[in-house]
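Deliverable D4.2, example record:
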Amino acid sequence: MNSSLPRILLAEDNEADVYMIQKALATYLGQVELQVFNNGEAAMRLVDRVLKGVEVLPDLALIDLNLPRFDGLEILQRLREVPGREKLLVIVVTSSDAPQDRKDALEMGADCYFRKSSDLAQFMEIGTVVRNLLAQRASEDIAAKSAGVANDV
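Output generated by the structure prediction step:
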């Protein structure tokens, strides 16, 4: 795997949605390192490996709310326990339009709540959202490094 590529975790049990997200990422970001987990238990195993230091924290996680075995909020909660979690961007990707789901996800630390649309063009906007969040994080990292250099002078 190429370490310069964005590392993305995708926890999604709908194969059609996985395909569409892969297409959106390829369209808006080009190549990425994508790990796909089709249930919450598999995603939790990755998080546990990260907690043990066996696996590297991804740059971004795309998490469906309604997953079998563990739901997206449980995964989000566990991710927020990981050391270095402030560097991890989390987007909840769901078909739920329930205000409480949005509120819960954002209160638990999701950086963004993206509602899956049945409209193809709207669904593909997930690629733009991911690209923009990663670019924003990169700008923040550069600014933080520059501030650190200025303080060292």
